[in-house]
Amino acid sequence: DAGITQSPRHKVTETGTPVTLRCHQTENHRYMYWYRQDPGHGLRLIHYSYGVKDTDKGEVSDGYSVSRSKTEDFLLTLESATSSQTSVYFCAISEGGTGANVLTFGAGSRLTVL
Amino acid sequence: DQQVKQNSPSLSVQEGRISILNCDYTNSMFDYFLWYKKYPAEGPTFLISISSIKDKNEDGRFTVFLNKSAKHLSLHIVPSQPGDSAVYFCAARRTHGGSQGNLIFGKGTKLSVKP
Q1: What is the average pLDDT score of chain A?
Q2: Do A102 and B43 touch (CB under 8 A)?
Q3: CATH topology of domain A4-97
Q4: Is the C-alpha dihedral spanning B10, B74, B94, A70 positive or negative?
Q5: CATH code for the structural domain at B4-114
Q6: Could you tell me if B72 lies within 8 Å of chain A, comparing CB atoms?
Q7: Could you tell me how far CA A98 lies from the centroid of its own chain?
Q8: Domain extents for chain B?
Q9: Which of A2, A84, A99, B113 suits a disulfide with A104, CB 3.0-4.6 Å?
Q10: CA–CA dist A20, A5 (Å, integer)
């Protein structure tokens, strides 16, 4: 299995509280991504990183921030969680380069905002 | 604006028969298409891909067909097995300039293979 670890795997929090999800990889891949999966929406890109301290927005970035201070760690932060951010969050990594850009996904973090 | 569409939310197939999952796209700049499989409580796993310059790619029981003129691709699973029961996501990539390009996913199709 690709070395991707997401933590926490499950979290319940209240509206207005800050939440940080962590993605850790042992593959030394350049690219890291955060997606959310919701019924009826499939997988949607929140933010991605193309190197240490290099990040960019995806299609559903409002309400989220990210940081990547080390190659192996990519953090997703909800500054003030809302019920609409209840979702399953997936981290993914890729080597980049030419070709199909195959993403390898982590097991997911289920977040419930009450 | 949904660029990658999987119009069938679910599909049920008998074991041993062919499963055909469909995907349509709107952006002619996509250069790669991928299929992912997802079991409950797990992350999606890569299944097969196809370049936009090809019209077919095969890997064991899985074959992906691409019809560029129709902006349509399909995943064929032959023969279908109960272990193939999962949600299947179609994804597309567009590169621009020197960038890596990101994947855009469809909403998924839930395949059920009945023994």
Answers
A1: 93
A2: no
A3: Immunoglobulin-like (2.60.40)
A4: positive
A5: 2.60.40.10
A6: no
A7: 23
A8: 4-114
A9: A2
A10: 14
Domain boundaries, chain A: 4-97
The rounded percent of chain B whose pLDDT value lies above 70 is 94
Contacts of B104 in chain A (CB under 8 A): 45
> Is 90 exceeded by the pLDDT of residue A95?
no
3-class DSSP assignment, residue B83: helix
Find out whether B77 and B59 touch, Cβ atoms under 8 Å: no
- At A22, give phi and psi (nearest 5°): -115, 140
pLDDT band with cut points at 50, 70 and 90 for residue A39 = confident
- Pair of tokens at residue A91: 């981290």
Question: Which of these, B89, B68, B61, B46, lies nearest to A99 by C-alpha position?
Answer: B46
Q: Please state the rounded mean pLDDT for residues A28-34.
A: 93
Residue A97 has pLDDT above 80, yes or no: no
Neighboring chain A residues of B110 at a CB cutoff of 8 Å = none
